[in-house]
Amino acid sequence: MKSRWFLLLLMIMPTTFLLAQKKGKGKLGIDSIAPVGIIKNIPDSALLEIVQRQTFRYFWHYAHPVSGLARERDVPVKAQYYWDYINEAWDEPNLSKGVFGPEDCAIGGTGMGIMATIVAVNRGWIGRDTAVKRLIQIADFLTKADCYHGIYPHFMNGTTGKTVPFDRLDDGADIVETSYLLMGFLCAKQYFNKENIYEKYLAKRIDQMWGAANWNWHTKGENKRLYWHWSPRNDFDMNFPVWGWNECLITYILSAASPNHGISKTVYDSTWTGSYGWKNGKEYYGYQLPLGSYDKGGPLFFEQYTFMGINPNGLTDSFGIDYAKQAKNHTLINRAYCIENPKKYKGYGENCWGLTAGDSYKGYVAHCPDEDKGVIQPTAALSSMPYTPEYSMQALKHFYYDLGDKIWGQYGFADGFSIHHNWYAKSHLAIDQGPIVVMIENYRSGLIWNLFMRIPDVQNGLNKLGFKTVGQLILNRAF
Question: Which among 39, 1, 53 is positioned nearest to 479, based on CA atoms?
């Protein structure tokens, strides 16, 4: 339900900010969401609502019109393969004649957008029936799209459903991106559970996807490793196990949770927890970091993608790892590094922090203390709201009030900026916008955590891998 403050704001907004998409003959559609500009002196709850709501527009108004999938980005880049664009950051020449643009959709980003859609319905920004129809549109499209033993590719053409290769060998199944997609769909099934024809149909489609996903195929039948990619042309030639500490814990949980194709705990033990770089244990800026091989922690999305659905609070494993501590301390270390600012970049400080993967002034970079180019991604601090609410709110106010004229737009905050290099992105990326909506909501109400953690299959997967959960029900904070 909208707060009284937010309803008041909607009434008093200057008309110059009412830029909503229209339906029919110039009339604002009942489910359209109008973007707003910078509104001064509002309560924190109203500001959080504005940021979530406007960010959600990326998935609602910019979704692919044919499939409903989330487009990967809203500013095209030159790329025959997506790696061509990424590698610009490392001074590799990019003479690609191809363009990665509005036809190219993100499977993982779509899952994040599905979770954001649940938030939108729960907060009254869009209608429940309209949201269900959008999710059916996506699910029906995926029934005929490219799929490899139930696993979807990283990128997909939103009109044809054909795989868009990420790289020369990466032109087939991506088990990690599929795990984000299914995290979103499983949450949707949990939320849209009414006994009507549309919600029952959606549930059937989700069950079909969930049951068909063959996680075991990605072990190559060896029961020792879980591999990220498979291709009908290149088989397992990528040879890239899902290991270390990174954003992929959710992949193991869902792989173990599968009712039809679940992996064994042996695969988890030998690939994930048994890999070099899983544990850390060092202290940085006074904070111990339990997991990860990166000095001072890697990009902050490591602590955000899995934990959109999995609640880290009260979550421990057989090794005694406290996942709430991992998520919070990694975030605090990232912020402390930005405050120390050893490279003396302009703009860094207590209210301007957050290093994670995203667009930079030169290509796409997994920004972190080890790879600091002076670029801040707003999603890093904002999607950390459940872990560091005071510090994340400080950053949010700085981004919105102080830098809003440069980075605030129709889909929320731009993907990144560098005051030092006088560079402000024009782009928005699905995998950066989605966590903002979802993680702020988990801070405000615990909605997505409560939905996902109640799913019996998810609990089975956690138990199978040796996780324990204690006191995880999150009550609404009245925000």
Answer: 1
- Pairwise CA distance, residues 446 & 440, whole Å: 9
What is d(CA 83, CA 238) in angstroms, rounded to the nearest whole number? 14
Model pTM score: 0.94
Report DSSP letters for 428-457, one per residue.
Answer: -BHHHHHHHHHHHHHHHT-HHHHHHHT-HH
- 320: which residues sit within 8 A by CB, 6+ positions away? none
Give the residue with greater pLDDT, 229 vs 20. Answer: 229
Q: What is the DSSP letter of 269?
A: I
CA distances from 420 to 136, 409, 417, 427, 435 (A): 45, 21, 9, 19, 26
Nearest to 434 by CA among 68, 50, 115: 115
For residue 475, the 8-state DSSP code is P
Q: For residue range 81-95, what is the model confidence (pLDDT) as tens digits? A: 999 999 999 999 999
- Contact by Cβ (8 Å): 227, 220: yes
Count of beta carbons in the 10 Å neighbourhood of residue 422: 10
Contact 156, 107 (CB under 8 A): yes
> Domains of the chain: which residue ranges?
4-469
Residue 149's CB: how many other CB atoms inside 10 A? 17
Residue range 202-240, pLDDT digits in tens? 999 999 999 999 999 999 998 899 999 999 999 999 999
Which of residues 247 and 13 earns the better pLDDT score? 247
Q: Which structure tokens are listed for 361?
A: 């002034």
Burial readout 282-298 (b: 16 or more C-beta within 10 A, e: otherwise):
eebeebebbbbbbebbb
Q: Would you state the structure tokens that stand for residue 304, as one six-digit string?
A: 């955000």
Q: Which CATH architecture has domain 4-469?
A: Alpha/alpha barrel (1.50)
> Which H/E stretch holds residue 209?
helix 197-212
